[in-house]
Design a protein that fits this description.
The chain has about 280 residues and is α/β, with parallel strands linked by helices. About 45% of the residues lie in helices and about 10% in strands. Helix 1 packs across helix 3, helix 3 packs parallel to helix 5 and helix 6 crosses helix 7. The structure holds magnesium ion (MG).
Length: about 280
């Protein structure tokens, strides 16, 4: 059984800054300070860490446990309205090709699709609901599980293990995100990291973080199916030389999964057969 974990913000959808506005409102209500979030960086950080940073920006200290809970509940209270604002202003979008990929992945019985997100569970569902993508996810790891992305991913896998009632090897887990934090968290847990460039991550930093596969978005799902080992490359392309079209990154390197040697052999056989056929006319 394979597990694929998707990040939400910038990987499945872009909620047009709804989360930031909801957190700004929450901090304003508690601390009386406006627009704290404009001074902070959000790339790939979990909600709890964001809440702490925003509170610290306003008050100069860590929130108490009670204050942290209050921020969380106010954030979730304001989030739906802010999502509606984003939708009305046409700033709520799905990442290109993501529905096609999820639809395809949902057909494989040997694969379980889950969330691996820094969003609180409620926030995750609120952000995903308008996208129509929620139906593809049966479990997840969330920002309420931990401040650390790596533990969020581990928690998701733990939940998957409960669903299928069997242990999942780290090498069978694939994580798809849009920031270097997604990549490093996956690697820390021993999972396979994959990333896209159309999200919120800095392209150069993502490239440096070294995901096993990197494409612009999911417009072409083929490289992703190869990476997940669900399809074989008919051209028999060797590992580490697969070129992803539409991407400023020339080479996406398959790690220990993707294409195994048997795939390459089969591909070469198919290619030779094709050549023979052409030669015969
Ligand atoms: Mg993200």
């Amino acid at each position: 059984m394979k597990i694929v974990l998707f990040d939400i913000d910038g990987t499945l959808v872009k909620a047009g800054g709804a989360g930031v506005r909801a957190l700004n409102k929450a901090i304003k209500e508690i601390c009386g300070v406006s627009d704290v979030c404009s001074k902070l960086s959000w790339q790939g950080v979990t909600d709890k860490a964001n809440f702490d940073a925003a509170f610290r920006q306003a008050r100069g200290r860590k929130p108490t446990a009670g204050e942290a809970r209050k921020i969380g509940s106010l954030y979730v209270k304001h989030l739906p309205v802010e999502i509606i604002v984003s939708i009305k202003e046409k700033n709520y979008t799905r990442i290109k090709g993501v529905e096609k990929l999820l639809k395809k992945l949902s057909k494989y019985k040997s694969l379980l699709i889950g969330l691996g997100t820094g969003n609180l569970k409620e926030g995750a569902f609120l952000k995903l609901e308008p996208s129509g993508l929620l139906e593809y996810f049966s479990f997840g790891g969330y920002g309420c599980d931990s401040r650390h992305r790596c533990d969020v991913l581990r928690k998701a896998v733990e939940r998957a293990e409960k669903i299928i009632k069997t242990t999942i090897k780290p090498g069978s887990v694939f994580v798809i995100g849009d920031t270097p934090m997604d990549v490093s968290a996956a690697r820390e847990a021993g999972y396979h990291p994959g990333a896209i460039l159309d999200g919120f991550g800095d392209a150069r930093e993502i490239q440096k973080s070294g995901p096993e596969i990197l494409t612009k978005n999911f417009a072409d799902i083929k490289p992703w199916l190869l990476w997940l080992g669900l399809e074989r490359d008919p051209k028999g392309v060797r590992r580490g030389t697969y070129i992803c079209p539409d991407s400023p990154i020339e080479h996406a390197h398959y790690g220990s999964t993707g294409l195994d040697l048997k795939d390459v052999e089969d591909g070469l056989k198919a290619l030779r057969a094709l050549k023979r056929k052409i030669a015969r006319g």
